[in-house]
Amino acid sequence: MIVSRLGDTAVVLTLEGAIDAAMAGRVTGIAAAVRRDLNAEAIDVIPAFRTVTVVFAENRPTSLDARAESLRKIASSAEAEAVPAARQVELPVCYEP
Questions:
Q1: 90 vs 20, 86, 87, 93, 95, CA distance in Å?
Q2: Closest listed residue to residue 75, CA positions, set 44, 54, 96
Q3: Cα Dmax for the chain
Q4: Rounded CA separation 67/4 (Å)
Q5: Distance from C-alpha of 69 to C-alpha of 22, rounded to nearest angstrom
Q6: Fewest Cβ atoms closer than 10 Å to its Cβ: which of 8, 21, 30, 96?
Q7: Strand 51-56 and strand 42-47: pairing?
Q8: How does pLDDT run across 17-71, given as a tens digit for each residue?
Q9: Structure confidence at residue 83 (pLDDT)
Q10: What are the DSSP calls for the chain, one per residue?
């Protein structure tokens, strides 16, 4: 896992491995754990294919490096969650000249 800063107020966790259902479960589990454990500090938690980005409030006394270490601990102990089944969404379109 790679933990890197994103500007002055965010940290990105990048997971290693293939992009598959197992990875999606890990990302979902980490995002849920971060929301649960850092709810008071994190403004936004953004899960993606292999990353979880956490944006923090600017006025917090904790340094970004300390937050990054907290995220590393949370991510290493987080359990994978089940990924909901995909669903099909149809959007009607009308093309008129």
A1: 25, 13, 10, 9, 16
A2: 54
A3: 59
A4: 11
A5: 24
A6: 96
A7: antiparallel
A8: 999 989 999 999 999 999 999 888 889 999 999 999 999 887 666 687 888 888 8
A9: 79
A10: -EEEEETTTEEEEE--S--SHHHHHHHHHHHHHHHHHSTTTEEEEEE-SSEEEEEE-TT-SS-HHHHHHHHHHHHHHPPP-PPPPP-----------
